[in-house]
Amino acid sequence: MIAQIRGRLIEKVPGHVLVECAGLGYELDIPYTTFFHLPETGQDVTLYTHLSIREDAHNLYGFAARLDRDLFRLLIKVNGVGPKMALAILSGLDSQQFVRCVDNRDAAALVKIPGVGKKTAERLLIEMGDRLGKLEGMPQINAQTPDLSTSPESMPVHKPEDEAEAALITLGYKPQEAAKAVSRVAEKGMSSEDMIRLALKSMIPAS
């Protein structure tokens, strides 16, 4: 089991990173909440990881904090929730927001995440409500996400607006929804990361 990886960040695009470690390049799928905290390419990065082994593929998932990784592991145990949906959930809601959704039984916030229907949202509230109390690290859930360049913890586009729209589309939003959300928040000089963050916040309000 690969539980953590530390190395040089070679490439980062929304949803994916390439990390060089001991001469090998590791491709990891990441939630957007992790993407927002990545250092610049060429710098060292440390990610908590989960390795999924299937007959047709070995997939490595990376997370900014151990709590995020542990939440991911709990999510994929829920019936009907696979790694792709778990990443979408942790992209639309950070750990604190997700726990608050479960505590408040807020299914409405969950169904705004692409791919999460009403039945899945209700199942998440029931099953995750029983499991979150046993999750190690819950008392630190209000802590700031660590700086990935120091803590152990491609899509070719040209404009920040294009990159932000492409990122939202990979999450499952329709092109028209993505374009509308980005145009609503975009300002001159704003980075694609900020556009993605604000667009997601506008589409999935905090509960």
From TrEMBL:
Q: Please give the chief subcellular localization of this protein.
A: cytoplasm
> SUPFAM superfamilies of this UniProt entry?
DNA helicase RuvA subunit, C-terminal domain, Nucleic acid-binding proteins, RuvA domain 2-like
Alphabetical list of Gene3D superfamilies matching this protein: 5' to 3' exonuclease, C-terminal subdomain, DNA helicase RuvA subunit, C-terminal domain, Nucleic acid-binding proteins
User: Which Pfam family, an example, fits this chain?
Assistant: RuvA_N
Where is the region Domain I?
A: 1-64
Q: Which GO terms describe its biological process?
A: DNA recombination; DNA repair
The segment(s) forming the Helix-hairpin-helix DNA-binding motif class domain are: 73-92, 108-127
Instruction: Provide the GO MF annotations for this entry.
Output: ATP binding; four-way junction DNA binding; four-way junction helicase activity
| Protein location | Cytoplasm
Tell me its family.
Belongs to the RuvA family.
**UniProt note: domains:** Has three domains with a flexible linker between the domains II and III and assumes an 'L' shape. Domain III is highly mobile and contacts RuvB.
Quaternary structure and partners = Homotetramer. Forms an RuvA(8)-RuvB(12)-Holliday junction (HJ) complex. HJ DNA is sandwiched between 2 RuvA tetramers; dsDNA enters through RuvA and exits via RuvB. An RuvB hexamer assembles on each DNA strand where it exits the tetramer. Each RuvB hexamer is contacted by two RuvA subunits (via domain III) on 2 adjacent RuvB subunits; this complex drives branch migration. In the full resolvosome a probable DNA-RuvA(4)-RuvB(12)-RuvC(2) complex forms which resolves the HJ.
Q: What is this protein called?
A: Holliday junction branch migration complex subunit RuvA
What is the source species? Marinobacter nanhaiticus D15-8W
- Write the lineage as a comma-separated list: Bacteria, Pseudomonadati, Pseudomonadota, Gammaproteobacteria, Pseudomonadales
